Fold:
Amino acid sequence: MFEIAPSILSADFARLGEEIRALETGGAKVLHVDVMDGRFVPNITIGIPVVKSLRKATNLTIDCHLMIVEPSRYAVEFVKAGADMVSVHVEADVHLQRTLTAIREAGGLAGIAINPATPLSSLEEALPFADFILLMSVNPGFGGQKYIHTSTDKLRRLRRMIDERGLKTRIEIDGGIDASNIAAIVESGAEIIVSGTGVFGKGDAAKGVKELIEAGTAWV
Structure:
């Protein structure tokens, strides 16, 4: 079964507490938090203090995607702030295994994020140390982008790569996912579906989550 992980990057921050309660009502299980530093990606978003506040406001799984340089300096601090899942980019961390191990030792689930143009071969050595892989289906940095169609084939190959190694690593996917394409994405092996505009774009977050869950089960 798949889970919907709404990205709060697309939420109304003036009503963030209300938006989170709507996500819970709609059936979301994971709250996706995009952390951007203006260096690894062009945009700047939120950091550790906001994650601490989110932890007090919800029992949803908090999933922090670190789109930052030197993620090893901050990954454990996000776990301490209340994140349940923390992903770091394979492109940004030259000591990836060490960072993943540190996240696990701090009590979090450790993830590797990978950009659309980065080959899956870059994951091979670190894969056994990851609890999940975050496959980017858009180039990170901004919400509202269109799904890169080649991501579906990459997703299938990642699913096969994990299964052939007998690992329990889960697959998360993020970027351009809505009711029109979620069924194919779930069918191809994704287990955690990140969506920002697809959830919040119509002004009713609870309804947005429900529509995605319904659309995602269409292939069964």
